[in-house]
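I hope you will forgive my troubling you with a question about protein structure. Could you please explain, in whatever detail you think fit, how the structure tokens follow from the sequence? Thank you for your consideration; the sequence and its tokens are set out here.
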Amino acid sequence: AYLPDADSLQPLDITPESSRRARGIDVWAALRSLGREGLANLIERNCRQARRFAEVLKRSGIDILNDVCLNQVVAYVGDSDRTAAMLRAIEADGTFWCGPTTWRGASAIRVSVSSWATTDDDIEVSAQTFTRLHANLTT
């Protein structure tokens, strides 16, 4: 009763968007507490950390499929079976978490650096863990 009737198909008819949480509050709270410059610094730090993560992986011979210009790293470790095995090893290790993705039809691993609490040391430890687990998987 609180939604107007419409003659055409509306997004709310095919998605749960009408009941989603108020996402704007998160943005408002971040801007209120950090300010514009603080939020920009946070985003730039996460992007820089993602580039560093990719550099460490590249140096160890792991293919990076994307241009790491934001906070995402897409790493290629082999076919879907090898990717699944690598993800299981990462989860079992517990140092960090990342997930599966597909890049231009190939199975890959997506690392997203997005936490305000992520430190440069966290990136170094996580990237070294990734390379160690990858080396163990290939031997």
About this structure: The longest strand covers residues 106-112. The mean pLDDT is 90. The CA atoms of residues 80 and 100 lie 9 Å apart.
